[in-house]
Amino acid sequence: MQSRHLRNAVVIGAGICGAATAYFLSRRGVNVRLLDARAPAAEATGAADGAVSVASKRPGPMMNAALLGIRLYRELAEAGLLADLFKTRSTFIVARHDDECAVLEAHAAALSGAGVGAEILSQATARGRFPALAPATRMVVEVRGEGHAIGYRIVHRLIAASGLAVDRHEPVTRLILCERGQRIRAVETAKSRIEADAVIVAAGGGSGALLGLAHVLSPRKGQLLVTERAPSLNAGMPGAIMSGRYLMSKGSQTGPNGKPARGIGLVVDPLTTGQFLIGGTREDGGEAGSNDIDAVARILADAVALVPGLANIRLLRGFAGVRMAVADGLPLIGRLPGLTNGYVVTGFEGDGICLGPVAGQAIAALACGENSALDLTPFDPGRFDGLKVAA
Ligand SMILES: Cc1cc2nc3c(=O)[nH]c(=O)nc-3n(C[C@H](O)[C@H](O)[C@H](O)COP(=O)(O)OP(=O)(O)OC[C@H]3O[C@@H](n4cnc5c(N)ncnc54)[C@H](O)[C@@H]3O)c2cc1C
Question: From the centroid of its chain, how far is CA 133?
């Protein structure tokens, strides 16, 4: 079915946000060009863990969005599109120390208040449900109805289902405005100038340069590790483990002397392959491509303290990526201030695999003049002064 309002659109960036936007626009009959500076899922989306989780969200807009995000994954899985790519499971948030217990109790109450199936387990129940967990664990909260998805696989599935050929290695260098500056007329790349009825910027870390967002967006590196397959240990883990410290490590870290510090918030995810994905750091700034020994050692020490059986299996590889964080902790999803046909969807920090599809769905609806289930008011890019596309 062709959208009544929109004939064609350019989507800049083929990470999970851009791919989802392109998919939902294509489904409305909009003719989409999807451009990427490198290749689909080449940046954060290809370097993520993949928790589709409300357990890690703070109460408020992010928790509400995550609930819709999980619901959308479930619907797309039931419809067959993501049937083999979305694994449902619980998340077990675990406390080893007193300070974590207090945070966890408050968080469990907030989750329950939002209608999430969250339950504090007794020690005996926790041992029965989760045999691989260290006996010394102080408190366990099970959050039911969560899931896991590998970001790059979701991107490739969405693009294939859209029937699109991505313009690879085609960085957009400039948005060209019409004379009165109220519309984007075209986007410019080194090779061409592409006219469009609507332009959606989903360029992750590249969004800053296009939109003058340097004062709003900042990079936050994360390091992750992957183990060999260990089917029997994997069978003793009915879901992911998240340390109470993960909740405490969200947000910017400042170390002694005002220097950026790194938080380590442990997540151990048992994959369908029988492997484990173990993460990760939250570091202000940082190079995407490297793992360092201090981080790897600290992640593994935390992991083995919670799941002692991990000490007996081999580590296969490590990788790192950069999440883009917005100054106030909320992503930018909406119309660009002052423009009738320009939109942005970026700044999801460590939540974009969970929220990318539902945000892309909402932006596609907005661009077509329709409503969406996701309330975009808290994510309005216009909340920041100075966000302006140069004419
Ligand atoms: C270590 C780590 C762990 C994570 N774990 C989780 C998790 O468990 N759960 C979760 O929900 N999220 C997680 N995330 C976060 C998630 O990966 C990101 O929020 C999400 O992938 C962001 O998607 P995006 O489409 O906005 O950006 P990206 O994936 O970065 O995509 C942006 C794309 O735009 C392209 N681009 C940039 N500039 C231009 C330009 N000028 N022209 C054209 N193209 C351009 C890039 O090449 C890139 O392909 C994690 C991230 C990291 C790094």
Answer: 27
Ligand 1 atom with minimal separation from the 347 CA: 26
| Token pair of 234 as six digits | 């994997």
Q: Which residues fall within 8 angstroms of residue 239, CB to CB, at 6 or more apart?
A: 89, 90, 91, 92, 130, 142, 146, 270
**Among 317, 323, 346, 358, residue to substitute to test ligand 1 (most atoms within 8 Å of Cβ):** 323
Q: How many CB atoms lie within 10 A of CB 287?
A: 11
338: left (phi over 0), alpha (psi -120 to 50) or beta: left
Domains within the chain, CATH numbers bracketed: 8-46+152-216+328-383 (3.50.50.60), 88-148+217-326 (3.30.9.10)
Q: What is the pLDDT of residues 136-153, one digit of tens each?
A: 889 999 999 999 999 999
CA distances from 333 to 53, 353, 355, 366 (A): 19, 15, 11, 10
**From CA 259, how far away is CA 251, in angstroms rounded?**
15
Question: CA 322, CA 286: separation in Å to the nearest integer?
Answer: 8
How many angstroms is it from 368 CA to the middle of ligand 1? 24
pTM of the model: 0.94
* Angle, in degrees to the nearest 10, between helices 352-367 and 61-78: 80
